[in-house]
Amino acid sequence: MVLVSKLGRLHSERIAEMMNIWVILPVWLCYDNGGVDMALKTALIVILCILAFPILWISVVKLIRKLYPFPAPAIIGRFLDSGYRRRIQLPSQLIERSGIREGMKVLDLGCGSGAFTPFIARTVGEKGKVYALDIQADMLAQLERKLAKPENRDIKNVKLVRANAYELPFDDGFFDLVYMVTVLQEIPDRKRALQEVGRVLKKGGILAVTELFPDPDYPWKSTTIKLGTENGFVVDKTSGNFFNYTVRFKKL
Question: Does pTM surpass 0.70?
Fold first, then answer.
C-alpha cells in the first residue's frame, strides 16, 4: 500500500496520460460504429499493441528507479557491449556527433563494459588518452578483459577508473571532452554530477550526451538540453533523431 501511495503521488499525471493514450484510444477503436475504416482500425490497434510494450517497459522502470535508484546491473554488460547495439548506435556516428578528435584527453563517464571505449581510444590516438570511469567494479572487469583480447592489444591509451560521478578524481580543467551514452539519467543527483563534469572540463571543453530509445531512462531531447543549460553549459550542436540523439554542449 505504501508503494502504491508513493507511485500515485509521484506519477499521477503520467499515469493519466498513459490512460488517455493506451486505454481510451483502443476502446474507442473497438467500439467505433463505422466512423473508422475496418482496415485502418485494425492497423491502428496492431501499431498500438507493438508500441505498448516498450512504452510500458520504460514507464515501469522509471517508476522503480524513482523510488530505488540504481545503475544498470553488470549482468547486462554483454548486451550493452554487443554487436547488435553497435548496429543501432554506430561508433563512427557517436564519435562524429560528440566531436571526438585525435589528441584529445577524454572521459568516458559511465563506461560500463566499454561498448565504445576501444573506438574512442583509437580515434584519439597515441597523443590522446581515454579515462574509462564507472562506479561498478564488475563492469570495469568486463572492460579490462575486453581490452586484453588479441584484437585490442594495440590499445595502450585507456586507463580504467572506479569512481562515482559526484567526486571525479581529476584536477580542474583536466579534460578536453566528457561523453556519456545513456548514462546521465541513471545518476540520481544529475545537477551535482554536471557541476563536477564542468569542473574537470577545460574552458571551452565539450560535454556530449547521447540517449537511445527504448532505454528505460530515455529522456526527451528538450530535457537533456534543459539539464545542460541549467548547469553551466551552452548547446553547441544537436544531432540525430527521436530514437538516437546526441546533444553536444560547451563549457563557458
Answer: yes
